[in-house]
Amino acid sequence: MSTISLQNDPPLTSIIVLFRALNTHRIRYCHWKSNCHLDRSIRGLTDLDLLVDPSQEHQFRSILHQHNIKPVKAPRSMQYPAIEDYLGFDPETGRLFHLHVHYRLILGERYVKNYCLPLEKAFLDNVQVDQQVVKIPIPELELAILAIRALFKYRDRDAIKDALSIRSPGLSPGLLQEFQYLLDQIDWARLSEILHAYFGFVSPKIISELIEIVLKAPRSGLALYRLRGRLRRELREYQRCTRFQAICKYWEIYLGLSLPILRRSYPKKTPATGGQI
Hints:
It is built from 13 helices and ten strands. The strands form three sheets. The protein has a six-stranded mixed sheet with strand order 1-2-5-4-3-10. Strands 6-7 form a two-stranded antiparallel sheet. Strands 8-9 form a two-stranded antiparallel ribbon. The protein is α+β, with helices and mostly antiparallel strands and 277 residues long.
């Protein structure tokens, strides 16, 4: 099947049935990020990133089991607390779909996810329905967390590339597309209310300054580098490990995945209950 026809396919029935079941059983969840691509996710073309109320963890798993959605395990070095992976199968199309399930909001730089932010209640209390069935956060919340995610993922070499205006930008076109998608929806007064109500652990100015950079000069390498440093300092108490340990873990996994001689030490996800993928 061609990429074009996949793009035009309707949502996978198995995914829609699953979300209807979650709604019927009043599970507190939301598809918490990258909702500009939600139409692709419900077609099985990209992952579904769900935040689920941990008090309903067992009920949520029971619903997955009833819908024949299987747990899978990432390599040990790439597992994170309160995050689970599941694989579903849509009989009508023969297509697989992947659920990335969070019971806590743990995020950060690639391979490390070093920060655990106290925002679960904020997200689960402020939802709306998209694609007629999927609960998503209000755009002001998603924009605020996108700003934090963007700074977490901004690397030292991105700052150098942006400062010299060479190669690809540190804030990728896909990331800027997400920003624009959300900026087109938000109410600025409501964004200010959200930042002051739920983001007391970080200065709202960091988020507002990042948004201003995105709007006016997304390749401001030095400004982004400094803003990232401020964010890391303010969130130090929410780290899962020290900055030095995080750097070591990143390079361990990065080299393990990049060097052919080490790549076998980092297998892909495998079924938690046995079998093969």
